[in-house]
């Protein structure tokens, strides 16, 4: 890996593949009642947000604010629009009610079609915060400090929703990593030292043990569980990033790269019928959910690619 590059484009795909598999496996665990898989989802979201913070900062360093929001709308919001349309069609197919005001609120992320899409709300908060903060703050340390402040503000706005608390550090850590790519060799060799790695493993192990204590396990929405999940997410997320080369070998590499290329569409697509399959789980419904997930994922990929190419041709011409 060349100096000045912390995470290559290929490694970004690799980590996105790991992230989306963690999220989907956690949701599959919810379907079949495997509660021990629940911690995987927050770790996957941590990876997504870390990569968003890192990628956004690197892009800003190279290109500034050129077409900033246009790029984000094309990459993130356009697939979501298609998803809301597909979700509305799905709701009608299964015989549930919907209406135009609800459809519009879902398009605007005022209401979410499905709970898993809370991640998009957090991403848009960060896109907006990053854009305006870089207008008024040029000092890196002050910028990161203000981002931590905004992380607290987002948690307050979202009424201390535990999902947002678990991701308190995720996006800002990606920004910090991007600001320190020139010191990659020194920083990573320091982080990968036995003491740091051992400490992260110990934190993760203690978090898992505490999380499985009878009291904590029976109060999954409680304060202790929230703090434990935060420490578990942070420690394991950082370990995955530091030792991603281990997951870059053989079949694992091919699997993670493949899913990394479809990660966002799969995130959106697998949630469309997720609540339906959870309502009354059966083998048939699980199979239908899998088939729908595959179909919707590829449909979103096709629609988004086609739309963005058409938009690009229109802008160029």
From TrEMBL:
Localization of this protein: Cell membrane
Cross-referenced InterPro entries: Acyl_transf_3_dom
Keyword Manganese attributed: no
Keywords: Acyltransferase, Cell membrane, Membrane, Transferase, Transmembrane, Transmembrane helix
Signal peptide: none
GO cellular component terms given for this protein: plasma membrane
Biological process (GO), any one: enterobacterial common antigen biosynthetic process
Spans traversing the lipid bilayer: 12-33, 39-56, 77-96, 116-135, 142-158, 164-181, 193-210, 222-243, 255-274, 286-307
UniProt membrane topology term: Multi-pass membrane protein
One annotated GO molecular function: O-acetyltransferase activity
Family membership noted in the UniProt record: Belongs to the acyltransferase 3 family.
Protein name per its UniProtKB record: Acyltransferase
Protein's organism: Ligilactobacillus agilis
Lineage, top ranks: Bacteria, Bacillati, Bacillota, Bacilli, Lactobacillales
């Amino acid at each position: 890996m060349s100096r000045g590059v912390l995470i290559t484009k290929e490694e970004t795909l690799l980590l996105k593949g790991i992230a989306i598999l963690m999220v989907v496996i956690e949701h599959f665990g919810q379907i079949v009642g495997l509660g021990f898989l629940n911690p995987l989802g927050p770790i996957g979201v941590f990876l997504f947000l870390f990569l968003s913070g890192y990628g956004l900062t690197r892009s800003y360093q190279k290109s500034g604010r050129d077409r900033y929001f246009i790029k984000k709308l094309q990459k993130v919001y356009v697939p979501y629009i298609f998803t809301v349309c597909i979700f509305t069609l799905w709701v009608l197919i299964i015989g549930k009610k919907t209406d135009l005001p609800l459809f519009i609120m879902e398009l605007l992320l005022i209401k979410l079609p499905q709970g898993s899409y809370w991640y998009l709300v957090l991403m848009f908060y960060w896109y907006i915060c990053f854009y305006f903060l870089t207008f008024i703050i040029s000092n890196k340390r002050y910028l990161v400090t203000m981002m931590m402040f905004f992380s607290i503000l987002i948690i307050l706005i979202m009424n201390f929703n535990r999902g947002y608390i678990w991701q308190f550090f995720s996006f800002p850590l990606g920004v910090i990593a991007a600001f320190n790519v020139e010191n990659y060799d020194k920083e990573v060799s320091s982080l990968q030292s036995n003491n740091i790695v051992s400490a992260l493993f110990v934190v993760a192990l203690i978090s898992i043990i505490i999380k499985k204590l009878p009291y904590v396990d029976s109060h999954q929405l409680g304060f202790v569980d929230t703090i434990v999940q935060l420490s578990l997410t942070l420690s394991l997320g950082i370990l995955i990033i530091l030792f991603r080369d281990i997951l870059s070998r053989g079949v694992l590499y091919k699997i993670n790269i493949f899913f990394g290329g479809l990660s966002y569409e799969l995130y959106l697509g697998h949630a469309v019928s997720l609540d339906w399959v959870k309502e009354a789980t059966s083998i048939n419904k699980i199979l239908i959910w899998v088939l729908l997930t595959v179909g919707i994922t590829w449909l979103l990929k096709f629609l988004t690619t086609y739309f963005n190419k058409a938009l690009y041709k229109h802008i160029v011409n």
